[in-house]
Amino acid sequence: MRKFWAWGALIFGMLYFILPLLGMTNFSLKMRRGVYSLDAYAVVLGDPRFQATFTYSILMALATIVFGVLLVVPTAYWVRLKLPGLRPYIEFVTLLPLVIPAIVIVFGYIRLYNTSSWLPLTGSITGTNILLMFGYATLALPYMYRSVDTGLRSIDIATLTEAAQSLGAGWTTILARIILPNVLVAVLSGAFLTFAIVIGEFTMAALLNRPAFGPYMQLLGANRAYEPAALAVMSFALTWGCLGLIQLVSRFQKGAQSAT
């Protein structure tokens, strides 16, 4: 009886998520009346605004990932190695972006870094892009930190550090050539989640007036019918692609470890 209810709940959950997606996909293929076609997808992909905003968001995602790795990996490593008593406080800080709305964060940025402040980042395009990257890194911090911390938990960082130091390695060498390769799967998991967050984020990009993919999706949804459905399907496929890459990298790493 329990197995029946378990399968019933699983099937209900799958239908709950899959049926709307199938309906949206079906609608996106009906731009040409009477036949199924990819016209809506062709219109979206051929739109210069799509190309510009998608490229911008990809570049911002890559910059955010690099900044997040440089920030989180040394911090999580040092806390685990030298300051284990601070772990609860660090974890609390990294969870704050989950409970503080993005609109509150971005309004705080605008208030602190406007053109009349001591650091007027919003007064230039480059400064605004940097500010937006910091905002994206803040939103992705819970996922990046958790991923890296889980990876560090699976290895003996104290022994690895002592062995490296006994061979004359410095802290930069230890982080870059010993710790990072051992937590690469965890870092990639956090990187893919960061990428998915940046691609779909709307609030910060809109309020900072940057040409990102999230505001473009909202603008297209307010003015078109079939193209927003096609864009939503592509965004959903991109997100699931990132999750699939996480699983693929994890399996590859497990296979490499078992082979050795």
Automatic annotation (TrEMBL):
| InterPro entries noted in UniProt | MetI-like, MetI-like_sf
Q: Which residues form the ABC transmembrane type-1 domain?
A: 54-249
> Which parts pass through the membrane?
7-29, 54-77, 89-112, 118-145, 183-208, 228-249
Where it sits in the cell: the answer is: Cell inner membrane; Cell membrane
Report any Pfam family annotated for this entry: BPD_transp_1
Say where the protein is mainly found.
membrane
- Return the SUPFAM superfamilies for the record: MetI-like (SSF161098)
Note the topology in the membrane.
Multi-pass membrane protein
> Which UniProt keywords are present, listed alphabetically?
Cell inner membrane, Cell membrane, Membrane, Transmembrane, Transmembrane helix, Transport
Q: Which Gene3D superfamilies match?
A: MetI-like
Q: Which family does it belong to?
A: Belongs to the binding-protein-dependent transport system permease family.
Name-wise, this protein is: Spermidine/putrescine ABC transporter permease
Identify the species of origin.
Shinella yambaruensis
